């Protein structure tokens, strides 16, 4: 078994190589090249699974109330079976009345178990929770229950289409109660690709459905608040309200809800100061990192401060829930 640092270095080197390559030849071409490197993708999958299940698992046992995965389960239970959904509906109604509009919630029905699409799942960590039925997809699955799929390319249609070799060809439109992007967006090298992933999530979610985003952030509560605001506006332009944002020690966790009526959120957006194009707005601090200290292209690297945020784990305390509608 490799040690934690070796595994972490390899993961970071893959992310950084992809970002640097994307600067050289453009994000689309770099992505295509990356996806053809099956050996690297396979090594990434095995490494990520080992990091999470062997090394991070130990910490989860000590801090069981603070793991990223348990945060997701907790948030889903709060939203679908606790007060979250009702809270959201009353807020959206209040917002509708501000614009003299009405909002119809009759077509929103969720079952007793949450259907959740885990994008970039790696090893399907949510498979053991009784309230959640997962569809787990990944570029390179690390578990037999994960479907092979490039979320950026997958088609959207009437139903889930899986080919013989567990290749997911199509996902169902408005087919999911919840979608999870756990450490997914920063893997994608450009803001446009991240925006396009969020756009796809919007199409796949039911109205009133939940998009949960976990992204590495080890800085203090407000350090990345400008970026967080950009994300909020970009997601709003797609028709999703930011419901909560919580800063854990190494993570920022967001929940967004697909609006029941897109017109209401469009009205809200008209009154916001928007100084960036939405498809460039899902930026991350690493986009501006020159990586001057990144000399070795494959397995070894001198550590980058920003990318260290990804490591070593996904825990810490929850320190607050923001009210979405109060500026
Ligand atoms: C940093 S790992 C996170 C794994 C897991 N979600 C977690 O939180 O521990 C990112 C994962 O996203 C997958 N991924 C990246 N881009 C993807 C895409 N376009 N479609 C599907 N999976 C993708 C990678 O293969 C990798 O397994």
Describe the structure.
InterPro entries: Bmt2/SAMTOR (IPR021867), SAM-dependent_MTases_sf (IPR029063). This protein is an alpha/beta fold. It is built from eight helices and ten strands. The strands form two sheets. A seven-stranded mixed sheet has the order 3-2-1-7-8-10-9, sandwiched between helices. Strands 4-6-5 form a three-stranded mixed sheet, with helices on one face. A hairpin with a 3-residue loop joins β9 and β10. α1 packs across α2, α1 crosses α3 and α7 crosses α8. The longest helix is centred in the N-terminal third of the chain and has 25 residues. The radius of gyration is 19 Å and the shape is globular. The relative contact order is 0.15. The structure holds S-adenosylmethionine (SAM). S-adenosylmethionine binds next to α3 and β2.
């Amino acid at each position: 078994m490799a040690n934690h640092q070796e595994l972490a270095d390899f993961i970071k080197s893959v992310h950084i190589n992809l970002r640097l390559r994307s600067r050289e030849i453009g994000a689309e071409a770099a992505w295509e090249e990356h996806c053809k490197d099956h050996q690297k993708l396979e090594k990434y999958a095995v490494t990520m699974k080992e990091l999470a299940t062997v090394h991070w698992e130990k910490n989860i046992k000590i801090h069981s109330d603070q793991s990223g995965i348990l945060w997701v389960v907790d948030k889903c239970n709060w939203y679908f079976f606790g007060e979250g959904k009702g809270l959201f509906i009353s807020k959206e109604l209040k917002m509708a009345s501000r614009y003299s509009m009405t909002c119809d919630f009759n077509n929103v029905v969720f079952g007793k178990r949450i259907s959740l699409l885990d994008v970039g799942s790696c090893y399907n960590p949510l498979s053991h929770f009784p309230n959640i039925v997962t569809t787990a997809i990944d570029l390179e699955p690390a578990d037999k229950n994960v479907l092979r799929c490039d979320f950026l390319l997958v088609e959207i249609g009437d139903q889930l289409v899986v080919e013989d070799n567990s290749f997911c060809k199509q996902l169902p439109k408005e087919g999911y109660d919840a979608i999870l992007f756990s450490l997914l967006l920063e893997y994608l090298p450009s803001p446009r690709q991240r925006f396009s992933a969020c756009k796809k999530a919007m199409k796949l979610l039911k109205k009133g459905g939940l998009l949960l985003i976990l992204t590495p952030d080890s800085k203090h509560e407000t350090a990345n608040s400008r970026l967080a605001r950009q994300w909020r506006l970009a997601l709003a332009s797609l028709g999703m309200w930011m419901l909560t944002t919580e800063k854990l020690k190494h993570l920022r966790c967001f929940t967004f809800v697909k609006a029941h009526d897109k017109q209401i959120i469009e009205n809200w957006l008209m009154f916001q100061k928007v100084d960036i194009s939405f498809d460039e707005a899902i930026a991350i601090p690493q986009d501006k990192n020159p990586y001057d200290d990144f000399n070795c292209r494959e397995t070894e690297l001198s550590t980058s401060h920003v990318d260290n945020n990804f490591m070593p784990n996904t825990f810490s305390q929850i320190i607050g829930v923001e009210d979405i509608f109060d500026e």
